[in-house]
Specification:
Strand content: 15-25%
CATH class of the largest domain: Alpha Beta
CATH topology of the largest domain: Rossmann fold
Structural class: alpha/beta
Helix content: 40-55%
Largest sheet: 7 strands, parallel
CATH architecture of the largest domain: 3-Layer(aba) Sandwich
Order of helices and strands: EHEHEHHEHEHEHEHEHEHEHEHEHEHHH
CATH superfamily of the largest domain: Glycogen Phosphorylase B
Distance between the termini: 11 Å
Number of strands: 13
Oligomer: single chain
Number of domains: 2
């Protein structure tokens, strides 16, 4: 098959600047290089670092959209103004530049990566080409803009979890469609990036003691991720001097706009002084080292996670998990490798109690870690690639 892959235009592919969606596209491209099932046309924004990598791929052709020129920006403003004035979605300059190139190509399917409105424009220009929306977030819901146009433009939707699939099916039903063109295509990670290290020496390099009990949180420092609930739980555990929290990523407190939430986070960090470490920015290929030194991982999401790649990363490293019952996260973990908590008024206390339970029970932590590692294999990069090909056979 010849597949045209349209990215959002936020970050480049190959994923030299990170990005969850972009990294998944990378994973798919690399698997295709191994199995040689498809010829891929990949459209993304231009970037010097990515261009240097493009010659490494035999079965993928990359097209780079230059978005920084004054002419591009002016055209982009005009197209967005057209949408505002007409009330009809008119796209942006990025998708029109992609379309201009697509007209010169031949392909069997267009895969749109997580930007449903682009399908509206693509279907107008290529009415006879099937469009697959690869949906990573809750974008196609009953209250989304241009709902009917989006649903009609996308011939198929591949959601990253059953949670996303059911959301889209419900949206189709709301306009009188049955939603039988919606499928689940679970995410994966490149498991080759996640491998054990000499954890004790790395702990020491990060100013931890070998006897510290390290809790790891990976995610954005925003209210939706529940970091405040975890910090509140840490404040309840101050008498346990060796229980520490490692947060992957930076805070950007100094440079960010002050909000009630950021003020609250700073206050909680100060209350737990000496028990919290922030890593700052970490290259994705180095994240495994931080997972490996952790005793447990906590993901107290307050929103409905579409999938929760961080939970899968922790599982791949064989870590017990404490998490909330949120969206697709409960499809990634199970009760053999995770303690799952309700998102209610008792959450802070329940996080603290779950931490103490695992802190005091090494045998249970060990068992959960073994089950986590075993379950993670259900989301391998090979299974990810094979599932796509299975779906392609179903819809072809």
């Amino acid at each position: 098959m010849k597949l045209a892959i349209v990215t959002r235009g936020d970050l480049p592919v190959p994923a030299v600047k990170g990005g969850a969606v972009e990294s998944l596209i990378d994973l798919f491209i690399n698997q295709n290089e191994l199995y040689k099932e498809h010829n891929l046309l990949v459209y993304s924004i231009s970037d010097k670092a990515k261009i240097r990598l493009e010659h490494n791929f035999q079965y993928t052709t990359f097209f780079n959209i230059k978005t920084k020129s004054p002419i591009f920006r002016i055209k982009n403003i005009l197209r967005k103004l057209q949408t505002r004035l007409t009330g009809k979605y008119c796209g942006d300059e990025y998708i029109y530049q992609i379309i201009n190139n697509l007209k010169l190509q031949s392909f069997d399917y267009i895969i749109v990566e997580n930007i449903p409105v682009y399908s509206i424009i693509l279907k107008r220009k290529f009415p006879n080409i099937p469009i697959i929306q690869h949906l990573h977030n809750s974008y196609i819901t009953s209250n989304c803009s241009y709902k009917t146009e989006i649903l009609k433009a996308n011939d198929y939707v591949f959601g990253v979890s059953d949670f996303i699939r059911k959301e889209v099916m419900n949206t189709y039903e709301s306009i009188g469609f049955n939603g039988n063109n919606v499928y689940t295509w679970y995410n994966a990670i490149n498991e080759n990036y996640f491998k054990p290290i000499d954890a004790n020496s790395y702990r020491i390099s990060l100013d931890f003691s070998p006897d510290d009990f390290i809790i790891l949180f990976s995610g954005r420092i925003v209210e939706a991720k529940g970091i405040d609930k975890l910090l509140e739980a840490m404040r309840l555990l101050t008498e346990y001097s060796n229980i520490k929290l490692l947060i992957i990523g930076g805070t950007s407190f100094a440079n960010s706009k002050q909000t009630p939430f950021s003020i609250r986070i700073k206050e909680l960090c100060e209350a737990c002084k000496g028990k919290i470490r922030f890593t700052g920015y970490v290259d994705y290929k180095q994240i495994y080292k931080y997972y490996d030194i952790a005793d447990i991982c906590v993901f107290p999401s307050m929103w409905n996670e579409p999938f929760a790649l961080t939970a899968l990363e922790a599982m791949t490293m064989g870590k017990p998990i404490i998490a909330t019952k949120s969206g697709g996260l409960v499809e990634v973990v199970n009760d053999k490798c995770a303690i799952l908590l309700e998102r209610d008024e008792k959450l802070t206390n329940n996080i603290a109690e779950a931490i103490l339970f695992l802190y005091n029970n090494l045998d249970i932590r060990t068992s959960m870690g073994i089950h986590a590692k075993k379950r993670s294999k259900q989301f391998s990069s090979q299974i990810y690639y094979e599932r796509f090909n299975e779906l392609l056979r179903i819809i072809s």
